[in-house]
Write a structure and sequence with these properties.
With about 140 residues, the protein is mostly helical. The chain is built from four helices and no strands.
């Protein structure tokens, strides 16, 4: 397998994951009572990390490798998009998830997860589409 194929595998995994989070997981948080969400959320964060972290690390690692092996504007832009996803995840979403885990649950935080996640959803989708088109060309 070549690097483009590996990239598409990780990008597709991230694509499926982010759309599940956006359309199913985050909206479902609104159906929990506060204490139920607090208990479930602690388990959710740990369990989802086993799926999220390998995908994110793999995607970032392959993008970095591609920048060094095939440096061009395209690979640089894709790396920038992935970096923006990481920044959003760790500077926006990790603090929001920590707040929920410690009981800071309200409509504002739950709505914030859904609304702010559209940026990550768009970025991950753009990365997949760009790499798919690049692989087809």
């Amino acid at each position: 397998m070549n690097i483009e194929t590996f990239r598409l595998v990780f990008d597709f995994g991230m694509l499926v994951l982010i759309w599940l989070v956006q359309l199913v997981i985050y909206p479902s948080f609104k159906f929990y009572e506060k204490e139920g969400l607090k208990m479930w959320h602690k388990k959710y964060v740990t369990r989802i990390a086993y799926v999220v972290m390998p995908l994110m690390i793999g995607q970032l690692s392959l993008a970095i490798v591609q920048v060094f092996t095939e440096f061009n504007l395209f690979s640089l832009i894709v790396l920038l998009l992935i970096t923006l996803v990481w920044m959003s995840t760790f500077f926006q979403f990790v603090p929001m998830h920590n707040q929920i885990s410690f009981g800071g649950i309200g409509e504002t935080i739950l709505d914030g997860l859904i609304h702010k996640n559209w940026l990550r959803t768009s970025l991950v989708t753009a990365v997949f589409v760009a790499n798919l088109l690049n692989a087809l060309i």
